[in-house]
Design brief:
globular, 6-stranded parallel sheet, 353 residues, alpha/beta, binds 3-amino-D-alanine, 9 helices
């Protein structure tokens, strides 16, 4: 008797994590879970909560009877198909970039703006970009207390933000470099990759990712900014409801498979202390505070991957900037950064349908 849930993009990197999240739930409100993917994956069998389900091909009819359709597909697929799902009566919860900045589509992080779930004139709710999302639980909680004014962010983004092909590429590069001595002279990493049949021209990344950090994520926008950096700015403003929030972001790709990290410099209207920030962060159920500098305890991707909460640490009061906190955040970009937040929105919807 519960709502019917569809997962569009069931066989992709985020879709796979979504199934893992549904498997891990003690109970689910759904009367049916339907798996939808491209025609190429149709017919594939996947087990969800102990039940073998057959993936059906994306078509308008696939949405018949569906109440909530979660989309984990590329922007152009969502742009075409989320409105079709909505026109067939489903609420589309979309994890692509296609609708995030549409004023008629709420951009939801349940800890920050769950009230927006009910405000969906197009029948579409957007899930934020994983980079923005990774810091939202922390910033939302701190903003409620201290009123956020300015944000300077550097990201350390994992390969899996680029999907399965990007994960495969990082593993292939790691394998090609195994046992090789590199990092000695310019060009040595590229030579090893070329010799292994892995020229950078074939990579989803614009440079080798192993033995490297790449100050580039997304596509080129005006004045040298990347799409990813503009998403951090625009989406943070929309989610936090601060249209004039000053934001400057530099997005960087690092050779980590999964978990985005961010170094955050947040300026507030009111006086802040590390002690008060610790209290607020520790009280937020979806945050784990790992901040004991004397014991060298801080968040890292290695200790975050596969976990639902956001891990926050290195909280410091900036020495030369009043009312300002610097801190470090790690969030599994495929879980809270993508699948988990989408699923939490769907759960919120199920309560309100
Ligand atoms: C990335 N945030 O990490 C983007 C995609 N979701 O590439």
């Amino acid at each position: 008797s519960g709502p019917v849930l569809a997962l569009v993009g069931a066989t992709g990197a985020v879709g796979t994590v979504m199934i893992d999240i549904m498997d891990g739930r003690a109970s689910v409100p759904w009367s049916e879970i339907r798996l939808i993917a491209s025609a190429r994956s149709a017919g594939k069998k996947l087990t969800v909560r102990g039940e073998e389900l057959t993936v059906v091909a994306l078509s308008p009819e696939a949405f018949d009877g569906v109440d909530i359709a979660m989309f984990d597909v590329p922007d152009e697929v969502s742009a075409e198909w989320a409105p079709i799902a909505a026109s067939r009566g489903a609420v589309a919860v979309d994890n692509s970039g296609a609708f995030r900045m549409d004023p008629e589509v709420p951009l939801v992080v349940p800890e920050v703006n769950a009230d927006q779930i009910s405000n969906r004139p197009k029948g579409i709710i957007a899930n934020p970009n994983c980079t923005t999302l990774s810091m939202m639980a922390a910033l939302g909680a701190l903003h409620r207390e201290f009123e956020l004014k300015e944000l300077v962010v550097s990201s350390y983004q994992a390969a899996s933000g680029g999907g399965q092909a990007a994960i495969d590429r990082l593993y292939a590069e790691l394998e090609a470099l195994a046992g090789k001595e590199v990092g000695v002279r310019v060009g040595d990493v590229r030579e090893v990759l070329d010799a292994a049949g892995l020229p950078v021209s074939d990579s989803p990344f614009p440079a080798p990712l192993v033995q490297n950090v790449i100050p580039w994520a997304g596509s080129l926008k005006d004045d040298g900014w990347t799409s990813e950096e503009l998403k951090v700015r625009n989406e943070s403003r929309k989610i936090l409801g601060i249209p004039d929030l000053k934001v400057s972001a530099t997005c960087v790709r690092v050779p980590v498979v999964t978990t985005h990290s961010l170094a955050v410099h947040a300026v507030f209207a009111r006086e802040v202390t590390v002690e008060a920030a610790h209290k607020i962060l520790a009280a937020q159920p979806t945050i784990v505070l790992v901040d004991d500098p004397a014991e060298l305890k801080f968040p890292t991707p290695v200790d975050t991957v596969g976990e639902d909460p956001t891990f926050v640490g290195r909280v410091r009061q900036a020495l030369d900037f009043p009312n300002t906190l610097d801190f470090f955040v790690c969030g599994d970009n495929l879980r809270k950064g993508a699948a988990l937040n989408t699923y939490e929105i769907a759960e919120g919807l199920a309560e309100r349908l």
